[in-house]
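Reply to dn_fold:

You asked what the input looked like. This is it:
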Amino acid sequence: MKTEPSLIEAIRSSTWAPVLTEEQLARVEATCYEEFIPKGGFVCHKGEIVDNWIGIISGMVKMNNFSPNGKSVTFTGVPPGGWFGEGSLLKDERRRYDAMTLRDSRIARMPAATFHYLLENSLPFTRFLLMQLNERLGQFIGMVENERLLDPDTRVARCLASLFNSHLYPGIERLVQISQEEVGLLSGSSRQRANQALQVLEKQGLLRVDYGGIRILDLEGLRRFEA
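and this is what came back:
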């Protein structure tokens, strides 16, 4: 079984870590802290004051919102290696969404003071954030298109493919530790409908449903797939 990284190892393996100076990285390591949140727990709440940047050490987190009648809409899933919440920190506004764990998760938190210190003192880090926001924008535009134009089979294919973004989620592996229920939540489908879609994609040779997750066999094929 693969050993989970420590907090320091997770920080040092982040996409933005290599662009920092030793002094800047030391400050990050000294101020970041870790939190364990069980499956179904809240990583952050809509409307709260944003006082940290959030990274995923292990597990998976979904960003979502609830309507007044209790209906949930999921924006995206964040696997290990991903960081989110920079938009609210940059705008200095209250958080506009909830984030909940899809399974037991270890969460890294960078205090807002450290985040803004890097923003003000590291041009490479600022450049990284510009890329991060651009990639996130592209991801959300694609999600709106998928939700409004695509059938469930294609939505599941695009949902899985979207997890393989080397900038947003550098730690993702071809064996995605994700359940069929989680695929349904992230693609806006029921567990049963997500299971049907996975069977279609498996017959196409694009993936294989393995014990403990889904193994991606043809990533480009998933990105191009249309039912």
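The longest strand covers residues 52-58.
Hope that clears it up.
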